[in-house]
Structure prediction request, 247 residues.
Amino acid sequence: GGDAARAERAHVRRMVGTLRWTLHAKLAFNIAKSIYETQFTQHARLKFEYGSKEIANLLTFMGLVGMLVNAVGLPLITGRGKKAEGGGAKGARGEEGAERGAERGAEAYVWQVQGCMALLEGGTLFLWGSSTNLYPYLTSVAGIAIASNVFLPLTNAAVASQAAAVAPGALGELIGFSGALDNVARVLSPLIGSWVLDRYGTQAVGSLAGALAVYSTLPLAAAFRAKNRTTEVEVEVEASRPKDKDA
Prediction:
């Protein structure tokens, strides 16, 4: 009983840490994305002297890329996640070990995808800010759309799963808090983005947004580390139980 209670307390503490770091990463990424979205029109006008028609075409292009990612890319990614889950289960011993191995394999895959998408978002935001002709600019817009439409759904799903593990009875409140942080990003980003754009120019606003997106990989790594520690504690306590019974 004492070991189980200790394991449960450790589990909750570390899942709280995992959730906190995941929300931290999501906030940084959302500020970067919102800076891009709120400054997109003004940026295009200053960079290429585009009018309403050209900007509307760019927004349509962004929407089409996002639609393709949601319709084709995300199902492929989640399908690969299930394969990773199966691979983790094969390497584990016993029924419970197989479940933990499957969970670890799927989680590691998702965190790898999230990290890659954050780096893609950061790199393409840098390119967006520094582009001087159309083709690199379109490449950056497509890359930003791909990264955002993969990173955020995966992160929202992770937040929901972690919140359910931390406090199942307060799941709605925790999801609401996550949504409130999204609104904080939408409030801060126009102020920050417009100030940087007006004071330092188009390249600076892309560099700032890109740096925030790349920074989001750090709390993601901290969340992954915290979650893996939780799994190790559970395994250690579970492994000690047969010994206690034999004694």
